[in-house]
Design brief:
- The chain is of the alpha+beta class.
- It has one domain: 3-Layer(aba) Sandwich (NADH Oxidase), CATH 3.40.109.10.
- Helices cover about 45% and strands about 15% of the residues.
């Protein structure tokens, strides 16, 4: 089961369709441990992960996204509808929150520093999500990272009893699809060497 990191990165795909199969609690804990063990700015670990297995609650969140799709600009409405479809058939979601510990800790320094700390929090949380994503691949789980869910932050927070800043919803399950690898830009087009 153990793979080289580069193989894991190369084989990872966004999975939008899942089998109707419950995920082992031990596998869920491994995903959370991978997130927790991630590097973070000043080791603040500014994240909170809410694991939701309740199908009815997941469907309510899906309906919130679908409802919001009727009130946003073209393009975003399509993304919200697609996210809603994915949520409707996922067995488990992880709502990822920013606890804002770093930005609140240094808010006394003024807006400029608070803004910088918010960026550090976002970077730290994105790294934690990437750890979850790669660990899911190792555990033969599929995952879709739904950033579009922040459009419904207030409603989702009300539904699950949170007050923090929602960063993303991760859909997790055993894959029932294996998409082709999407075309990637040439390395020479995305990089520059300065000697």
């Amino acid at each position: 089961m153990k793979k080289c990191l580069l193989e894991i990165i190369n084989s990872r795909r966004t999975i939008r369709k899942y089998k109707n199969k419950k995920i082992d609690r031990e596998k869920i804990k491994l995903l959370l441990k991978a997130a927790r063990d991630c590097q973070s700015a000043h080791n603040t670990q500014p994240w909170e992960f809410i694991v939701i297995e309740n199908k009815r609650l997941i469907e309510q969140i899906a309906k919130l996204l679908h409802g919001k799709s009727k009130n946003v600009h073209i393009g975003f409405n399509i993304l919200l509808k697609e996210a809603s479809k994915i949520l409707m058939q996922t067995p488990l979601i992880i709502a990822v929150y920013n606890t804002k510990e770093l930005s609140e800790k240094f808010s006394f320094l003024g807006k400029k520093y608070k803004k910088l700390c918010k960026l550090y929090e976002i970077q730290s949380i994105a790294a934690a999500i990437q750890n979850i994503t790669l660990t899911a691949e190792i555990l033969e789980l599929g995952l879709a990272w739904l950033g579009i869910s922040v459009f419904c932050e207030k409603d989702i927070n009300r539904l699950i009893g949170r007050k923090s800043s929602l960063m993303a919803i991760l859909c997790v399950g055993y894959p029932s699809e294996f998409p082709e690898k999407p075309k990637r830009k040439d390395i020479n087009k995305i990089s520059r060497f300065i000697r």
